[in-house]
Amino acid sequence: MNLQLTEDGRLRHLLTLDGLPRAIIMQILDTAESFMDVGEREVKKVPLLRGKSIFNLFFEPSTRTRTTFEIAAKRLSADVVNLNIATSSQTKGEAILDTVDNLAAMHADMFIVRHSQSGAAHFIAQHVAPHISVVNAGDGRHAHPTQGLLDMFTIRRYKGEFHNLTVAIVGDVLHSRVARSQIHALTTLGVPEVRVIGPKTLLPTGVEQMGVKVFHDMEDGLAGCDVVIMLRLQNERMKGARLPSAQEYFKFFGLTPEKLALAKPDAIVMHPGPMNRGVEIASEVADGPQSVILPQVTYGIAVRMAVMAMLAGTGNA
Ligand code: CP
């Protein structure tokens, strides 16, 4: 059963980009484009979700995702509740589905869920009443679909098309839910060459089966790239030592101006955040003219507005 789509093919939940039809991804990107000017207006609001209650359930830390979901929901005129997990009854041993049931009893319309366990959002989506939608805001190392979508939005804004691009994803792909969502979206949108670059210890076994080319050194991997996406070392998900040291990692896989010069001169540099300067990326690159890292964050608002508006079955700005 496809939990994400209704019988007539509309978005019901957003849990993963794996298998999400191209037409839905394009509809999200186009709807997001129509919301871009809302942030520039004097009154930064449209009434599409007036009267709806959206609950942010973040069981893991977040700066960008939680905040931009809140801003996006408010710009759609929804009522937003940020459950503080650290001071919630989760600390008294309440089961996650009991928490969800209690919030549903407060007339929730949508849950935005981040959790360290892969499959948590899916688990909640299977449980909720038919009028409630669930958005996966990052589950374990499985998926981060709205990050993948805002990354596609960013690439389309700077590069226009997908069909002529070479995109490199660099670093800790093994532990990265963002990389998985990006790879699914890039291949669905027809990017002809998606590369992953990293040490053997940080690339998943059999990653080629996702339709990517594997590189173990930056010189070969970055050559001719249009888009370079850097990933953080996900130390919180690593079991045992996978790297000699952060300094050693930076020497071989950190993006410096010299290494970036191997990509096309107009290549853009992306990073989902949070960044570790001097580990996966040099400050000169992060703050340099080819970086689109902060625009990614801004675009995340419009993309999350689009996802929530489509889940609620409402139209454009
Ligand atoms: N990109 C991302 O998920 O960032 P946060 O962890 O700050 O939400």
Structure description:
The model has no long low-confidence stretch (mean pLDDT 95). The chain is α/β, with parallel strands linked by helices. Strand 1, helix 2 and strand 2 form a beta-alpha-beta unit. It has 2 domains: 136 residues, Aspartate/ornithine carbamoyltransferase (Rossmann fold); 152 residues, 3-Layer(aba) Sandwich (Rossmann fold). Helix 1 crosses helix 11, helix 5 crosses helix 6 and helix 5 crosses helix 11. The strands form 2 sheets. A 5-stranded parallel β-sheet has the order 7-6-5-8-9. A 4-stranded parallel β-sheet has the order 2-1-3-4, sandwiched between helices. Bound molecules: phosphoric acid mono(formamide)ester. Phosphoric acid mono(formamide)ester binds next to helix 2.
The helix/strand series, from N terminus to C terminus, equals: HEHEHEHEHEHEEHEHHEHH
Uncertain stretches of 5 or more adjacent residues: none
What is the subunit organization of this protein? Answer: single chain
Hetero ligands: phosphoric acid mono(formamide)ester
Alpha carbon gap, first and last residue: 32 Å
Percent helix = 25-40%
CATH superfamily of the largest domain: Aspartate/ornithine carbamoyltransferase
DSSP helical segment count: 11
Number of domains: 2
Strand order of the largest sheet: 7-6-5-8-9
Q: How would you sum up the global shape?
A: globular
